[in-house]
Amino acid sequence: MKQVSDGIGQAFSLIFSLDPGLLNIILLSLWVSGVAIIVASAIALPLGTVLARSRFPGRSSIIILLNALMGFPPVVVGLIVYLIFSRNGPLGVLDLLFTPTAMIIAQILLALPIVASVTRQTIAMLWETNRELLISVGANRLQQNATLLWEARFALSTAILVGFGRIIGEVGAVMIVGGNIDNLTRVLTTAIALETRKGNIGLAIGLGIILIIIAILINATVYFLTNLEEAKE
Amino acid sequence: MKSKILPLQLQDLQYRVGDLDLLGPINLTLEAKSKTLVIGPNGAGKSLMLKLCHGLLKPTSGRISWMGGDSLAADRHQSFVFQHPIMLRRTALENVAYPLKIRGLPSDERKARAIEVLELTGIAHLADRPALKLSGGEKQKLSLARSWVTRPEVLFLDEPTANLDPRSTYDMEKLIDQIHQTGTKIIMTTHDMAQVRRIADELCFIHQGKLIEHGPVETVLEMPKNPMTAAFVKGELLI
After folding, report:
1. CB contact set of B66 (below 8 Å; sequence gap of 6+)
2. Interchain CB contact of A225 with B (< 8 Å)
3. Closest residue of A to B76, CA-based?
4. pLDDT value for B68
5. Is residue B213 assigned to a domain?
6. ipTM of the complex model
7. How close A123 gets to chain B, by Cα (Å)?
8. Which of A195, B51, B173, B202 could pair with A200 as two cysteines, CB 3.0-4.6 Å apart?
9. Closest CB to A232 among B80, B133, B150
10. To the nearest whole angstrom, how far is the Cα of A217 from the nearest Cα of chain B?
11. Global pTM?
12. Which one of A126, A131, A135, A136 would you mutate to disrupt binding with B, by most B Cβ within 10 Å of its Cβ?
């Protein structure tokens, strides 16, 4: 127990002294997952909308693939990205393995299916409800989709936050493709795994507390958004 | 107001789903100015006819022509009030301004016109309320305001008062009359015969997808040519 209480004490001193090592790890985590969720959303929102509104060959396969990817173990997604970017892999020449970019790519693959699936379902439902109005006022397809996305704003923000929560707290994929290199690819989750194994319980707990604070902030935002949505109905 | 799109002509208009003939063939010409009410029992095809005219559905066969042609501009001069109001998740004011936004009007003009229509409709006090939170009667007035804001030449209303209490129905009927007085052609469905007597200039009676009778309201009510029309206007149940 002493180890834990010492650890917590050490953790707080690290947090409040803004330890540069710790700060680096936090910033890299936020950077990698932040960029990943932005890119994933930028692809997933239009993709989900197209899947909801259009019928084309291959549509069902994409939907099935997205649904399957949602349930994929992150470590397997990491393995796939690793194989693609490894020396002998199809994109090995890009030399991206063990860089933050590789981690961002893995996290995009983890977040994209969540956001795209929620977008598809929400937009399809809202199209049914608002179809006659949108046709009646003479909205063209682009205007229709813009209106539907705005109507879906609460559900979509929640999906994006859930996606962010999934990738910032994920360890397997970033460990495989990032390699947990100090000052380069070490993020909160991989650092916790490493420091725990090294016996640096204080640092591990400090990192854990930060991660928990981030998780709580995300959940609070989701809760707030959901309530806001209910208040509007 | 000089007519831009009327008369509306339906030629052999038919709507079929699979083997089911839901409507038609219907031949009918509707002129500007008057208030045309489409009556008939549930499932007769009243809503279907309005939705076909407005372009929400594509006819299986036949033709809908505005002013003798297939004017592409026609849909800019019409609007539609649905039986169940469809509200966007935004304020009442933004809902009314929405059709103007689609038409690319600048935002200050959108707002000014939306406020004006909300005032005319008597719901200016609701402007900043979320539309989804309004009561049924308020929502229906709001959707009437949203249809009015584009200053349509033709206003379709699909049983706009079917779910409203007498007070809201009275307000709606007064507003419909007010819109009509600005030169808008009213084409409206109802199955309420008292409402027909209060509003209609002209009647179309539809039964089982067929246009049974069409004419000035006095003629159809007092001297119906068809026994089914006679039975319906007397309030007998057509089964």
Report:
1. B5, B6, B7, B8, B9, B74
2. no
3. A138
4. 63
5. yes
6. 0.92
7. 14
8. A195
9. B133
10. 26
11. 0.89
12. A136
Domain count, chain B: 1
- Burial (0-12, 13-18, 19+ Cβ within 10 Å), A90: exposed
List the structure tokens of A58. Answer: 């291959």
**Residue B3 forms part of a structural domain:** no
Looking at residue A168, which CATH number applies to its domain?
1.10.3720.10
With respect to residue B152, please indicate whether it lies within any of the assigned structural domains.
Answer: yes
User: What six digits make up the tokens of A134?
Assistant: 């949108």
* Structural domain boundaries enclosing B217: 8-233
Query: Between A20-53 and A100-136, two packed helices, what is the crossing angle to 10 degrees?
Result: 40
Six token digits for residue A73: 């173990």
Query: Which chain B residues are Cβ-neighbours of A143 within 8 angstroms?
Result: 102
| Per-residue model confidence as pLDDT tens digits over A176-230 | 999 999 889 999 999 999 999 998 888 888 889 889 988 898 889 888 887 876 6
Q: Do B133 and A136 make contact, defined as CB atoms within 8 angstroms?
A: no
**Residues in A touching B54 (Cβ below 8 Å):** 136
Q: Mean pLDDT of all residues in chain A?
A: 91
Contact residues for B78 (Cβ-Cβ < 8 A; gap 6+): B5, B54, B152, B153, B154, B155, B156
